[in-house]
Amino acid sequence: MRKIIPMAVAFTAMLFAQGARAQTNLQILYDFAPDRQFVTTTVEGFYNDNWGNTFFFVDHDFNTRDDKNKVYAPSGTYFEIARCLNFWQGTALAPLSLHVEYNGGVYKGYEINSAFLAGLDFFVHSIDFRNTFNFKVLWKGITYTTQKAPLQFTFVWGMQDLFGLKGLRFSGFADFWWEDHIVTSGLGDKFLPDISLSHTVFITEPQLWYNVGRHFGCDNLNIGGEVELSVDFGGTRGFRARPCAGIKWVF
Predict the structure, then answer these.
(1) Euclidean distance between CA atoms 48 and 28, whole angstroms
(2) Which range in 13-17, 36-40, 107-111, 151-155 is most confidently predicted, on average pLDDT?
(3) What is the enclosing helix (H) or strand (E) of 156?
(4) What whole-number distance in Å separates Cα of residue 232 and Cα of residue 196?
């Protein structure tokens, strides 16, 4: 999967910059990592209201290949939906929200265990809302999985018009959580499987997008990409850096 826990408020700065309206976008990214080299499409949506906001995304990895190594179908689908509840907007407690979330999917015929999360979100921002930061402390329960601690810590950021360049956006998230899972270096064989047990997962995905369409009357079009930096994520032991590049269309 391209990503696991991107959070709703990563969009907040962009929404304020565009008049605080809801947003749906489509991203098409190619993953250049040697162990991937396939296309992922992501549909994301963010919608705010008087009671808080809702965020969701659906990933499709296109890596099911025929005997000629030609891709003909998605190899995995992953879904997340999160709701921030804030009934006290306009008060001194406005930066603090309640957060509930569900994650789940399937990859190459194997289910990704469902995860249920709940906790607190703390939001800070610059005066003009162009720079936003969120810190989340969440209880996380994963079905059919043991955990040393049922917790996840998440940091989300968004920086609009980076370095004063209008249309350049730097955003992303970082997650750390506890989950007992099998990892491998990918170097073993059927006689030496090279597997071990890990108890934690770390992943961060900084993204950089430029609104190139603003130069020819099409503000919907963005070009850019991300780098997935992870430790013991997706069954792979140790640190990995997986760069992606592509386009984003904002509806």
Answers:
(1) 25
(2) 151-155
(3) strand 151-160
(4) 10
Q: Which band of pLDDT confidence, cut at 50, 70 and 90, is reported for residue 188?
A: low
CA contacts within 13 A on the Cβ side of 200? 13
Cα distance between residue 34 and residue 225, in whole Å: 17
Q: In terms of Cα–Cα distance, which of 231, 175, 242 is closest to 199? A: 231
Q: Are 219 and 211 in contact (CB under 8 A)?
A: yes
3-state helix, strand, coil split of the chain in percent (to 5) is 5, 60, 35
Name the DSSP letter for residue 236: B
Q: Coil, strand, or helix at residue 23? A: strand
pLDDT tens digits, one per residue of 34-60: 888 999 999 999 998 989 999 999 999
Give pLDDT tens digits for 135-170: 999 999 999 999 999 999 999 999 999 999 999 999
